[in-house]
Design brief:
The protein has about 425 residues and is mainly beta. It has one domain. The chain has four helices and 24 strands. Strands 3, 8, 9, 11, 13, 20, 22, 23 and 24 form a nine-stranded mixed beta sheet that branches. A seven-stranded antiparallel beta sheet has the order 10-12-7-14-15-16-17. A hairpin with a 5-residue loop joins strand 1 and strand 2. The radius of gyration is 20 Å and the shape is globular.
């Protein structure tokens, strides 16, 4: 199975997300209602570093996507009783054209939900957003810490029994957990985008729209060293393949792909992925063929605007000869990259980030709407660059925009 088809199949089961709004939280144009913006949570998280769980210091790595966003449209689900169904209509499926005029990080400026797939062990999860526009302070709006796992703040977990048992930070191989805000989304008649009425006790929530910075302290050991497995053996295409994905909230709230979705402009041609699409932020690929590589992440985003990024390394990224200090791999040479990779819609990064299997790393995902930039970073807890020291490891309740700018312009390993 090739990588793109595998990624699309992945989306069929994982779920995706979407947004709405008249104006983005950053003051830029936005064509749908973005939903409620989470308020700040009280207090920062503080450092959560156990020396016994840290591996030797590594150099870190960044991949920077510039000039992201494009005008266009994708199908958004509507109530069949009210419509409009101007994009697609069949067998109770009503899809309306959600037209996007801006190129400011569209559609990733919209309502997004995070999906985590194991094997993975998370110690901290934090989300920051601008208090006003992006030039002012950024607030911690959602957080979770393994030192108080039963007390998430501004977060909702769904999948892998987290709704009943809560999230304990451990996600077994092939298990999936969706992470969203705690703000209720009112499904039912007339909801926009439409999601069917929920049964008693069931809850659907918004994602995060506008500019946002996700920070996760996690490790991704090989399958077998963590419990909670959601598989019956090693034959599946997701076995031992952790993934961090961003999807539009519309699909996540739908629960799974069915016969009516925003992922493709024609639901029965889901394999095209030409609708609201998906962002595979950090994905280990296991296709049980030449694309398989358990040691590195691929990174790509796709939807109505086309495909941006690169697929898996496969045999091109041989990490066996690399020292443990290398977090960013030059795909052309299978050596440590000399400097952080930069990509655009017309140029792939030419580099891949390395999966941390024996120690923790900070995973950073910055979606900066005004600058049309997506910044991905992996940082060793004992090698935090001074420029982002106001963020890591303390994860404060608030930080200045200058710190976010330092994250955006970070280029690691050099």
């Amino acid at each position: 199975m090739n990588f793109k088809v595998k990624s699309l199949l992945l989306a069929l089961l994982c779920a995706c997300s979407q947004g709405l709004g008249s104006q983005s939280p950053d003051g830029g144009p936005q064509t749908q209602n973005p939903g409620p913006k989470p308020g700040p949570v009280d207090g920062g998280l503080g450092a959560d570093l156990d020396p016994s769980e840290l591996d030797p210091v590594s150099h870190g790595g960044t991949i920077t996507f510039e000039s992201i966003g494009a005008p266009g449209w994708y199908p958004s689900r509507r109530d069949p009783e009210t419509g409009p169904c101007d994009a697609y209509q069949a067998s109770g499926c009503c899809l309306s054209k959600h037209t996007i005029e801006s190129n400011a990080l569209t559609p990733w400026d919209e309502d997004l939900i995070v999906t985590l797939r194991g094997p993975m062990k998370v110690k901290q999860f934090a989300v920051y957003q601008p208090a006003g526009d992006s030039k002012g302070p950024w607030n911690l709006v959602s957080s979770w810490d393994d030192r108080s796992p039963k007390s998430p703040r501004g977060l909702h977990f769904e999948g892998n029994s987290t709704e009943e048992k809560g999230f304990d930070g451990i996600i077994g191989t092939e298990c999936l957990v969706d992470v969203s805000t705690s703000e209720d989304f009112a499904c039912g008649p007339g909801s926009v985008p439409y999601c069917p009425p929920q049964g008693s006790g069931k809850k659907k929530t918004w994602g995060w729209s506008g500019s946002k910075l996700f920070v996760m302290l996690a490790t991704m050991p090989h399958a077998g060293s963590l419990g909670h497995a959601c598989s019956q053996g090693s034959g599946g295409n997701w076995f031992d393949a952790p993934w961090v994905g961003l999807s539009h909230g519309e699909l996540v709230r739908a629960g799974a792909f069915g016969s009516c979705h925003c992922y493709a402009k024609e639901p029965d041609k889901w394999y095209l992925g030409d609708g609201c699409g998906q962002f595979n932020v950090f994905e280990v690929v296991n296709d049980n063929n030449d694309f398989r590589n358990f040691d590195v992440f691929s990174t790509n985003m796709f939807g109505y605007a086309g495909y941006v990024g690169e697929g898996p390394c496969g045999s091109r990224c041989k990490v066996g000869s690399l020292g443990s200090e290398a977090d960013l791999i030059d795909k052309s040479t299978s050596t440590e990259a000399a400097r952080g990779a930069v990509a655009s819609p017309t140029r792939g990064p030419g580099a891949a980030l390395r999966r941390p299997v024996s120690g923790y790393r900070y995973f950073l995902i910055l979606l900066d709407v005004p600058n049309r930039t997506v910044q991905l970073a992996i940082i060793h807890p004992l090698n935090v660059p001074a420029s982002v020291g106001a963020l890591l490891p303390g994860l404060p309740a608030q930080m200045e925009a200058s710190t976010v700018e330092a994250v955006r312009t970070l280029r690691l390993p050099r």
